[in-house]
Amino acid sequence: MEEQRESSKDGVVSPSIAVAATAAGQPPPSSLSRLPVEDQPSSIPKRRQELLKWNGWGYKDSKFILNKNGHVEFTGERYRLSGHVMPHLREWMSKTVGIDLDQKTPAQPELTAADIPLPNINDAFVEELKRSGISYSDDPTDRLFRAHGHTLHEVFVLREGRFARIPDLVVWPGCHKDVEEVVKLAGKHNVVIIPFGGGTSVTGALECPSHEKRMIISLDTSQMARILWLDEKNLTACCECGIIGQDLERRLTEKGYCTGHEPDSIEFSSLGGWVATRASGMKKNIYGNIEDLVVHIKMVTPRGTLEKSCLVPRISSGPDLHHVIMGSEGTLGVVTEVTIKVRPLPEVCKYGSIVFPNFESGVSCLQEVARQRVAPASIRLMDNEQFQFGHALKPEVGSFLASFVEGLKKLYITKIKGFDLTKISVATLLFEGSKEEVSAREKKVYEIASKFGGIPGGEENGQRGYMLTYVIAYLRDLGFEYFIVAESFETSAPWDRVLDLCRNTKDRIIRECKERGVQFPPYATCRVTQTYDAGACVYFYFGFNYRGVANPVELYEEIERCAREEILASGGSISHHHGIGKIRKQWLQRTVSEPGFGLLQAVKQYLDPQNIFGNGNLMIPDSKL
Amino acid sequence: MDGSGASAVPVNGKARTSSPCPAQSSGELRANSVTSASWINPDQPRDVSTLASYKDSYQDILNERRQDWDFVFMTRTRKDVPKYKHHVPRSPEDIKQHVLNSDRVKYTVERLHGEKKTSKAELLKQAEAILDEMAHALSMKSVRGFAFFLIKVFKQLFQRVYVNEEGVQMLRKMMHEYPVLLMPTHRSYMDFLLLSYVCYHYDLPLPAIAAAMDFKGMKFFGWLLRHCGAFYIRRSFGTDWLYWAVFTEYVQTQLRNGDAPLEFFVEGTRSRTNKSYIPKTGMLAASLESYFKAELPDTMMIPVTISYDRIVEESLYAYELLGIPKPKESTSALLKARSVLSDDYGCVHVFIGDPISIRQFSNGKIDRVLHSLEPRYINSVNKDEMKLINDLAFHIVRQQQRHLVISPWSLMAAILMQNREGIPVRQLVKEADWLKRQAYNLGAYVDWPGDLSTDDIIRRNLLLHKNVLTVSDDDMIELKLVRPGHVNKPIKDDILLNAATNLIVASYRNQVTHLFVRDALVALSVNSCTEETMSMDELFQKYSLLERYLSKDFVFQPGQTKQDFDLAILSLKHSGALVIADNFTHISDIAESKAAPNAAIVQVKKSFNKHTTFYSQMFEPFLLAYWVVCQHLLSIPIDVHGRPLPKRAKDLTKDVQKLAIRLLEENAVKHYEILSLDLINNGILMLMDVGTMYKDKRNNETWLSPNSVAVAAVADELGAYIELPSIPISNFTSSGRSLVMQAKL
Question: ipTM of the assembly?
Answer without folding.
Answer: 0.89
